[in-house]
Amino acid sequence: MAAAYRGRFAPSPTGPLHAGSLVAALASWLDARAHGGQWLVRIEDVDTPRCVPGADQVILSQLATCGLVPDEPPVWQSTRGALYQQALDRLVAAGQAYPCACSRKDIEEALRAAGRPRTRHGELVYPGTCRHGTGGRPARAWRLHTEGTPPVHWNDRRLGPQQQDVATEVGDFVLRRADGLWAYQLAVVVDDAHQAITHVVRGEDLADNTPRQILLQRALGLPTPVYLHTPLVLGADGEKLSKQNGAAPLDLSDPAQALQDAAKVLGIRLEATQPGWLPGAVSAFERFLDDASGPA
User: Which residues contact 225 (CB under 8 A, 6 or more apart)?
Assistant: First the structure.
């Protein structure tokens, strides 16, 4: 028997929700309701330097104003460090994670010396310098050993078949940062498993993270959720709306209008008002799923 559907919305409290955030929140809520499942909220606050005090409560209030209320109390990643440490310890014991002494400058110099240009949107592909030891240098971070892993293939319910060779396109990626903070990839994988998440619905900009997370799930013996990456809301400059590029906080003076605007990005157009709008949107979202690339 298939596991009961459990989905989640996992915002970072770096500021209030904006229009793009609401699209992801609404899509994950609708998908859970379309499957008769549960919808959770997780505050992803492990990157503490970027978190804004009080933003978590603002986000929860914004969601409630839109009628998007989680089925269980929200959880905060900042309270779950022991779980992340247990996962890292397992990877280290299995020889799948190792300490790294490299600074960003070290990585850039190693790649330049090897004649390997920076690719993948300018991200540094780690060359494996510390894979077999730090040479006596103090460790700065911990990385997952990806050498020899085959390309990761997965099917996105909207984008269709996807693949990435993490070993060559990303390299051994960070699990715990040089500043001691937990990396997003490890935290999200541990949390999804711990909360028994079966389906992940999030913005298309996060699709590139999926193969790394699948590798981690396999390394830790954890189940892989079903993924669906939603369309992005773009600004006037064609770039994705984000808090980093100054996206305006969500205007909730008319919650029904905000929801309808978010739904239009998902191809849902309903002339109704809250609260009766949401049940109708569930049926419309099921049609959105039928039009998606992969099976629902």
Answer: 192, 197, 198, 199, 200
